[in-house]
Amino acid sequence: MKILQLSDVHGSKRAASSAAEFARREGVDLIVLAGDVTTFGTVKEVAEILKALSSSGVQVVYVPGNCDPPELLRNDVGLEKVVNVHGRTVSIGGIRVGGIGGGLAGGPRSWIDLTEEEIREVIDSLGKVDLLVSHTPPHGSDADYLGGRHVGSVAVREYCLKAEPVAVSCGHIHEARSVSKLGRTLVVNAGPAKGGNAALLEITGNEAKAELVRLF
Fold first, then answer.
1. Cα 187–41–191 angle (5° rounding)?
2. Which residues have a Cβ under 8 Å from the Cβ of 162 and sit 6 or more positions away?
3. Number of domains into which the chain is organized
4. What is the pLDDT of residues 135-182, one digit of tens each?
């Protein structure tokens, strides 16, 4: 499966339309958006960005980020071919996808701040997935390195080492754009899409590879 991974769109219509065009051009099978669709925007604004992505004709899955409306922890935006995977799983092309939204509590306060215990409860409920979509990166990976220290979630790290998903699509830490490994799991932080950043992720069976790409 060929996946276009985005995160941290932060309301950029340019990023959304560029991603849709990129998806059409590259023939991707799935678009994954790992949170921060907006910057403290409304559900309607989230829907506008997701609608622009789905104009590609490609299935879209997403989780809300710490800067998105808390209502998205419980609800979706009601668009065809767009699925909120926070706390749930879906099967797409034989790949089981599950998600955890929000940011890790303890930093600057935002709209969706979850404790490690809350994150653990949600991801444990998913069971084993092939692709974990997590706004917050796992602790101790290249994807969570900021200011000389690791700031990601220990609960996400523990899940990766225990459940061994093939890949984790994450974001949140804009400065930690990277592709790295945590145990057997490929960890991809595509960087902020608002700045034109994305990643191409390919999953074949139990193997994954990724490259960082530019939308504009």
1. 25
2. none
3. 1
4. 999 999 999 999 999 999 999 999 999 999 999 999 999 999 999 999
Greatest Cα pair distance, the chain, in angstroms, is 42
Domain carrying residue 173 = 2-214
Distance between alpha carbon 194 and the CA centroid of its chain, in Å? 14
What length is written for the chain?
216
Reference 6, options 125, 177, 144; nearest CA is 177
Question: Which residue stretches of 127-208 are H helix?
Answer: 154-163
Tokens of 46: 């989230």
Query: How far is 146 from 189, CA to CA, in rounded Å?
Result: 13
What confidence tier does 117 reach under pLDDT thresholds 50, 70, 90? very high
CATH number, domain containing residue 65:
3.60.21.10
Q: What share of residues in the chain are helix, strand, coil (percent, to 5)? A: 30, 35, 40
What is the SS3 assignment for 17?
helix
pLDDT band, very low/low/confident/very high, at 108 (cuts 50, 70, 90): confident
> Whose structure tokens read 């990601």?
152
